[in-house]
Design brief:
With 474 residues, the protein is an alpha+beta fold. It contains eleven helices and four strands. It starts with a helix and ends in a 6-residue tail after the last helix.
């Protein structure tokens, strides 16, 4: 009885010494956000719309649909989700009892010149009952091991794996959102390039007509050869833009084909309707909705939850662990005795209590590292929230400013288009020199390009605000 008391006292002291854990620096996450975006308060967010409702161009929607099924990077991410799911299964198995079955057979001969062999040789044994020279052994049985998860170390580890699994799903959702926006932006870029090609072609025709007029006036000695050469150079320069733009079209088409997971081919598109496109009316919702709508913020939240559980698991390493092992089966040196019970029965049951006592540097390092990763996760979560808010605020402002810019550029193009006609008339009447005609044509071309670019930016802003609000994945 006194001996048992001593054992209990030793175990209690061992546990007390092991349970002392270092003090950590803690940081709580701040999820507070402003009440509105740029002073605009909407109760509904455009992110709640399905991407098929948000994008109304059927040809664009067909590309997105194909990409969601075939994009290689997205499919790679899907396999990462499966890996994370198996991690959960692995962690779950760690805190459940492990049961196995074992069977075996063997033979054993003891050497004469060993302690055991010499002992048998010098012992008086009744003839016929001596130990055989070759001793056989047959056994079959069950065995079980179980670490009792007293401090929830293993369960917290499993919960952390679950959080990382959910984080991987949000990572996939974020990739879906990014993929949809990248395809849509590339599609609108393709429409813009098609319209630039049309503008260049029309401008070449205008410049060629002007060149013919200059050549006629040169024959009439009203202009010099210099004017003819200037107009020829301008036509050649504009024609070279055709090939540059065609290359951009090819690369943009191939970029879209890569995103949808197929080899280069023509992209069906609605280029004629480009200037008729009107960006969707945007509902920004409340900034607090970003915490639920944006997959990158939700991913950071799950990563933070996992890191907190990692700290708890690391802390439990300082505490004693209790393990139980058991076995049950049959064993005999001859098969005819194998099923003879209870003589052939064997069983065992053991428990062990272990705790770190001296040189805890390894578990201290793991504990401190887990805490540092948790603090990193806090900052990452806060950064994701801040980044999400800033992106939405920027895109909402961008949409408003691009609308005003486009209206002014439309008027600029109208004025310069009219000025081309005026400059040509004045030139034919010898009331304007050829440089005024050239500069007017050049300005008009640049203005039309800028109008196309502004329209493209408008549509890109519509795509980007949908992405920044967290739309597309649901």
């Amino acid at each position: 009885m006194k001996k048992n008391k001593h054992i209990i006292i030793v175990l209690v002291l061992l546990s007390f010494a092991a349970c002392k854990t270092p003090t950590l620096v803690k940081k709580e996450v701040n999820t507070a956000v402003p009440d509105s975006f740029n002073g605009v308060k909407d109760s509904v967010s455009s992110a709640s719309l399905n991407w098929k409702e948000y994008f109304i161009d059927p040809k664009l929607n067909a590309l997105i649909d194909t990409a969601l099924a075939n994009n290689q990077e997205l499919n790679i991410t899907m396999q990462e989700i499966e890996i994370a799911k198996n991690e959960v299964r692995d962690k779950k198995g760690e805190y459940l009892p492990s049961v196995g079955i074992a069977a075996g057979a063997g033979v054993d001969k003891v050497s004469r010149y060993t302690t055991a062999g010499a002992s048998e040789a010098t012992t008086d044994i009744v003839p016929g009952r001596e130990t055989p020279e070759n001793v056989q052994d047959y056994y079959v049985g069950l065995y079980a091991t179980w670490e009792l998860d007293i401090w929830k170390k293993l369960r917290n580890s499993k919960k952390a794996a679950v959080s990382r699994y959910l984080s991987s799903i949000e990572g996939k959702n974020f990739m879906v959102t990014s993929l949809i926006s990248e395809i849509a932006n590339s599609y609108y870029e393709l429409l813009a390039l098609d319209n630039e090609m049309r503008i260049i072609t029309n401008n070449i025709e205008i410049q060629s007509n002007a060149l013919r007029i200059v050549k006629i006036q040169k024959q009439a000695a009203r202009v010099t050869e210099l004017a003819v050469r200037k107009f020829e150079a301008e036509v050649l320069k504009t024609k070279s833009l055709l090939f540059d733009t065609q290359q951009e079209i090819t690369e943009t088409e191939n970029k879209i084909n890569f995103l949808v997971g197929r080899f280069p081919q023509h992209i069906e598109r609605s280029s004629d309707e480009f200037f008729d496109l009107v960006p969707n009316s945007i509902k920004s919702g409340m900034p607090s909705q970003l915490l639920q709508n944006r997959p990158d913020i939700r991913k950071a939240e799950f990563d933070l939850a996992a890191s907190k559980l990692d700290v708890k698991s690391a802390k439990a390493s300082f505490y004693p662990s209790l393990g139980i092992s058991a076995g049950f089966g049959l064993e005999a040196f001859d098969t005819k005795y194998f099923l003879t019970t209870p003589e052939s029965l064997l069983y065992s049951l053991a428990g062990d209590l272990t705790a770190p006592l001296i040189n805890k540097n390894a578990i201290k390092a793991a504990y401190y590292s887990a805490n540092s990763k948790q603090i990193q996760a806090v900052y990452n979560y806060e950064r994701a929230i801040l980044n999400g808010y800033v992106e939405v605020a920027n895109e909402l402002s961008n949409i408003d400013n691009l609308k005003k810019s486009y209206e002014l550029r439309e008027k600029e193009v109208e004025a310069l288009t009219e000025s081309i006609k005026i400059s040509n008339s004045l030139f034919r009447a010898a009331r304007a020199d050829y440089m005024e005609v050239l500069l007017t044509q050049r300005d008009a071309l640049e203005a039309k390009f800028e109008l196309v670019e502004t329209k493209k930016k408008q549509m890109n802003a519509m795509v980007n605000v949908y992405r920044t609000l967290g739309g597309g994945w649901n």
